[in-house]
Amino acid sequence: MNANKTSRFADETHVAAPLGKQTVRGVIVSTKAGSNDFGNTYRMTVKVETPDGVYLVNSTVPASIFDACEDALQNENGWIYALKGCEIQFAATLERSDSDHFAFAKRPTKAAILAVPCEKARRFQPWKDEPIAAE
């Protein structure tokens, strides 16, 4: 269990994040956009659930994820905000931070969106809030 009982994660069991080359599969819990002298940066934090508990991975958002957004998500406030809540998978080299349950990902590759929340899914036809009539 998390030692901080006032935390929103108080009911979660944190486990140590793995190190080295890993396949990360989880849900994006936060996103952040920023800019510096080199241009814009986009970061995400992914919550990975295991049978023993959860750990967090912070990474840059791979370009392939942004490419997949157009096919999968509605864009209301920008892709970086639409990604929150999506389940993704990518491969990266993980390095642990000061907290055992938190890792930083280097050079994420082979990224894909696996699932999107229903309210964010792109609709290919207008939604009709009507029951389906039996024929």
Structural features, described:
With 135 residues, the protein is mostly beta strands. The protein has a single domain, classed as Nucleic acid-binding proteins (OB fold (Dihydrolipoamide Acetyltransferase, E2P)). Helices cover 10% and strands 44% of the residues. It has a five-stranded mixed β-barrel. The protein is globular and about 35 Å long. It starts with 19 loop residues before the first strand and ends in a 20-residue tail after the last strand. The C terminus is likely disordered.
Fourth-tier CATH superfamily name? Nucleic acid-binding proteins
Strand share of the residues? 35-45%
- Share of helix among residues? 10-25%
* Overall 3D form: globular
CATH class: Mainly Beta
In angstroms, what is the radius of gyration?
17 Å
Sketch the topology as an H/E string, one letter per element: EEEHHEE
Poorly predicted runs are 130-135
Kindly report the CATH topology: OB fold (Dihydrolipoamide Acetyltransferase, E2P)
Q: Please give the alpha-carbon distance between the first and last residues.
A: 54 Å
Biggest sheet, spatial arrangement of strands: 1-2-3-5-4
CATH architecture: Beta Barrel
The largest sheet is:
5 strands, mixed, barrel
Determine the structural class based on helices, strands and strand pairing: mainly beta
Number of domains: 1
In round numbers, the mean pLDDT is 81
Our count of helices gives: 2
Give the number of DSSP strands.
Answer: 5
